[in-house]
Specification:
The protein has nine helices and no strands. The chain is an all-alpha fold.
Length: about 210
């Protein structure tokens, strides 16, 4: 059970910063009342991240650190993803009413949202390095060593923690449903898009 507790805590806390593309997508879905869509994105991202977490705890992170070409490739992928999301947020046609975008999503739409969350996360192989670093810090701070069962529980619990945090985020946004005027939501979405474009340009300059 030790592995499950640590995995749950690290998955939950590690997903809190609203800086990554998945967090931005889930936040945007929540702003427009598309809570099921947001959870589908979160589930897809958690599935992909569980794979990377499993590779990290199995020791593949140390192997990947020796491939210096991985980092610039991953950063280039991040630039493309952030730029695409930023342009879409800035130029997307937004509903006149916040509740207009909600409705009851069908299976096809939920599958698309899940696939989007999975693919965006899967395209960032440096996540395995982030998990490797986090696990190394955990081993250095806590007197724990996981057996095979603990490692499996750690990975599964990390995915549960990721989904749990986004569930909390969407629940918090739901409490403000109907209180935020559509114009304010539109401004937030446009500013988020602009910030993503700036971040993409910054990463591109660093890459060059």
């Amino acid at each position: 059970m030790t592995g499950a507790l640590f995995g749950l805590a690290m998955g939950f806390c590690g997903s809190m910063p609203l800086t990554g593309p998945i967090a931005i997508l889930v936040f945007q879905r929540g702003l427009f009342g598309r809570y099921r869509d947001g959870m589908a994105v979160a589930f897809g991202a958690a599935l992909a991240e569980c794979v990377y977490c499993g590779l990290a705890i199995a020791g593949f992170g140390a192997l990947l650190e020796s491939y210096e070409a991985l980092r610039p490739v991953s950063r280039a992928i991040s630039v493309v993803i952030l730029l695409a999301l930023g342009v879409w947020f800035v130029r997307a046609r937004l509903p006149e009413q916040v509740g207009e975008a909600a409705g009851r999503p069908g299976v096809d739409r939920l599958a698309r949202e899940l696939g989007q969350g999975f693919s965006i996360t899967a395209l960032n192989p440096t996540i395995v390095l982030n998990w490797s670093a986090s696990i190394a810090v955990l081993y250095s701070l806590a007197p724990v060593r996981f057996d095979v069962g603990d490692k499996v529980l750690f990975v599964v619990a990390a995915g549960v923690g990721i989904v749990a945090w986004f569930g909390v985020l969407l629940a918090a946004l739901r409490r403000f449903e109907g209180r935020l005027p559509a114009r304010a939501v539109h401004v937030v979405v446009r500013l988020t898009g602009a910030a993503l474009i700036v971040a993409a340009v910054y990463l591109a300059v660093q890459l060059v």
